Each structure stands twice: as C-alpha cells, then as structure tokens.
Amino acid sequence: MSGSFTANYNVGGDIDKVKKIIALEEIEKLDNVENVDNIKNIDNLQDVENVKYLNEIGKIRGFATKTQPYNFMEEFEIPALKDNYTFTMNLPSVDCEILAITLTCSGYGEDDHYDLFFNDVQWFKDWYCSEVKEGLFLGTSTYVYAAPANSAIKLIFKNDSGTQKKIWLGVRMLV
Fold it and tell me: What angle do CA 75, 77, 83 make, to 5 degrees?
C-alpha cells in the first residue's frame, strides 16, 4: 500500500518577533527574546542585515549546513584525591555544528559523576559515568547544535571515589 501524508506545525519562536536586526538595542527592548548574549558576540552586528533563524544561534536545529568533519579529544588527569576537578576544552574559532560530546573515564568509581557546561550553560548535572565510552549525543543526521565560534566546554568531574583516573573528553562536529 502506498500513500503520502502531510504534517503541518507552527514552530513559532523568536524569529516571529525579530525579522531584521538593525541595532542590538531593538532586540533588548523586545519581550521574551532568548539568546541576546549570543547576538552580542557577533563582531559586525551593523553588517548583519537579516537573521533567518534567531533560534539557530546556540540551539539545536534541523539538518546540518556544514560538511567538513572535525573531531578532537583532550585527556585530563585526575589524582587519587576525593575532590571536584574542573577542566575546560576550547572549540575552534569558527562557527560549528556539534553532533556529539563523548566522555570516557578510566577506573571510575560508582559514585563518580560530573557536570558539563557549554558556554557557561549547564547541559548535564550529576551525570554518572558508565562502563564504556559515553556519547552525549546532541545531534543526528537530521539535528545538530549550532555553536558560535570560540565556544567552550567546561567539565566539573566529581571524584567521589578518590581514585586516580584519566578522563577523555571528545567533540564530534562539522565546521
């Protein structure tokens, strides 16, 4: 049996409120506009004539627009001391589309867990380690997280077991 169907839905959002950016002051006057701080990071705001989707700045959106894969991983050492350890991973100085963040931990204890922040926004709170490399998938072939240039990931690892270990934090992205 063959057939087709149509699905219509209204996504709404900030783009319905902001069609064109003339000055940052105009956006700050509007109610319920999110991500104004991300717009402030645009160096040449006066040259921006039209923002198609305000939601795309620092949000999950459909379908990747970039094609060049760029993946990297950093290793962090945790001493055999019960404490919280903070590590920062800086992303490239270009806009990118995040597909996944991976975390691998050697010799973790059952009570070891972490918090993860992306550009100072908490994405994971009290997330416990698993037996194998953990992919914190943010995107798929149809969804990606549009991240601005010079983004940063901050990991706060809570070494409640007090054992020595290594942490491998990786990012899968398109640039």
Answer: 130
